[in-house]
Amino acid sequence: MTQKKPVKSKKSDLTRAAILAAARELFTSQGFDHTTVRDVAAKAKIDPAMVIRYFGSKDELFALAVEFDLRLPDLSKVPRDAVGATLAAHYFGLWEGENRNHGLPLLMRSAASNEFAAAKMREMFGKQVAPAIAALVGPAQAAACAGLVASQLLGMAFCRHIIKLPPAVAMPRDAMIKALGQTIQNYMLPRGIKPSEP
Amino acid sequence: MTQKKPVKSKKSDLTRAAILAAARELFTSQGFDHTTVRDVAAKAKIDPAMVIRYFGSKDELFALAVEFDLRLPDLSKVPRDAVGATLAAHYFGLWEGENRNHGLPLLMRSAASNEFAAAKMREMFGKQVAPAIAALVGPAQAAACAGLVASQLLGMAFCRHIIKLPPAVAMPRDAMIKALGQTIQNYMLPRGIKPSEP
DNA sequence: GTCTATAATTCGATAGAC
DNA sequence: GTCTATCGAATTATAGAC
What pLDDT digit, counting tens, does each position of A61-114 carry? Predict the structure, then answer.
């Protein structure tokens, strides 16, 4: 008797997870092009052929490695004058908090030279970030506001965590959150103008 | 009679320049890894072997392709309350002005996934940007200020020109210069505090 | 499911004729 | 200076034994 869907497939799942974790680490530290299927297999302690067997190709493995959820807070529940600080703090939690085994560093590092990653970043921004901002500042100013906020937050990530520019690395976390929070607050809700105003 | 250093070596220089220009274009659009010596040779309409003969190796060719001068204005000659706008305008001139055949787009695109390019960017920042800022705001606040300014300017370049995030691309140049100028001004000279104050 | 062996490309760089 | 021919190494992906 054949089982269509076995209830237990522990080993397979563990192997899959090990491959994916190894791939994400190596893609992040070495980039897509300089990470070989052999490297991933070695780190996951399995045979290179298994990587292809489980994921089909190197490209499909990469596509799964960059998938993740930003878990943005609900900005409508945040005091209006604390929106900037909240976003800045959330962003640093993503980069320097306890749970950092997500795909953001990989996506950020890859997006500049990998069109698939760039497209993924635009998609994530459109689906997760833009709506949250539009709901707060209204549709008229949403685009410009979102572009400015993204440029500041991604820019700090680029300087501090990707290329490791010394002054950006040296800056204390609190000072940075304060400075970025003020900037973002000003981009989103300048001078207390209500979003519904003309 | 042999000439040690011929006064005229037009052809060689033209070939070198053609190779370098082709390399910069291809490295920028395809990235270092996906640009082959054969690609560069084809674009420059010469033999692939000549690329190596003229530049030694692909790595050395890349090193020359990323070399350039930011040509920052002398900030000491700019009114203090116009420093932010001046820097923002200069930055956009680099990215969207008439003379764009420099290495900045290539450096920016490569730095995230190429350690050599990242080091070059840190070096350029340290030699060209940091001193200009330090001379204006004083040594005490120079590092933090430089890190913040860099994060905002590089972040907009990343969003608007590298990954082409729709809201950042759509924003009119004037509106962006105004917004970034205000932010930079605030990072550099907040509330009119003089740089020499404790 | 797992591994060995290798197919099929592709690339950077070199040797040597002219 | 320039081109032809090719080396040697590395890569993804597959075929097939066990």
Answer: 999 999 999 999 999 899 999 999 999 999 999 999 998 889 999 999 999 999
Check if the beta carbon of residue A113 is closer than 8 Å to that of residue B117.
no
Q: How far is CA B6 from the centre of its chain?
A: 34
Q: Which two tokens stand for residue B184?
A: 């930079």
A:98-117 residues touching chain B, CB 8 A cutoff = 108-114
Same domain, B82 and B171: yes
Cβ <8 Å between A151 and B152 = yes
Same domain, A58 and A130: no
Assign residue B32 the CATH number of its domain. 1.10.10.60
Do A125 and B165 count as a contact with CB atoms less than 8 A apart?
Answer: yes
**How far is CA A45 from its chain centroid?**
27
Q: Which domain holds residue A112?
A: 75-192
A·B CB contacts under 8 A: 161
Q: Which nucleotides of D are covered by protein (CB under 7 A)?
A: 1-5, 10-16
Contacts of B177 by beta carbon, 8 Å cutoff, 6+ apart:
B85, B88, B89, B92
Q: How far is the CA of B91 from the C1' of C3 (A)?
A: 56
Tell me, yes or no, if the pTM score tops 0.85.
yes
Domain assignment present for A5: no
Flag whether A1 is in a domain: no
Of B65, B83, B110, the residue at which a domain comes to its end is B65
Nearest-CB residue to A109 (from B112, B125, B171): B112
Q: Which of B65, B92, B109 is the last residue of a domain?
A: B65
Whether chain B has a CB inside 8 Å of the CB on A31: the answer is yes
Same domain, A38 and A134: no
CB A120 within 8 A of CB A107: yes
User: Given CB atoms, is A29 within the 8 Å cutoff of chain B?
Assistant: no
| Confidence bin at B68 (pLDDT 50/70/90) | very high
A140: tokens are: 């008229």
Please tell me whether residue A166 adopts helix, strand or coil conformation: helix
Q: What's the structural domain count of chain B?
A: 2
User: Do A89 and A172 reside in the same domain of the chain?
Assistant: yes
Q: Are residues B85 and B49 in the same domain?
A: no
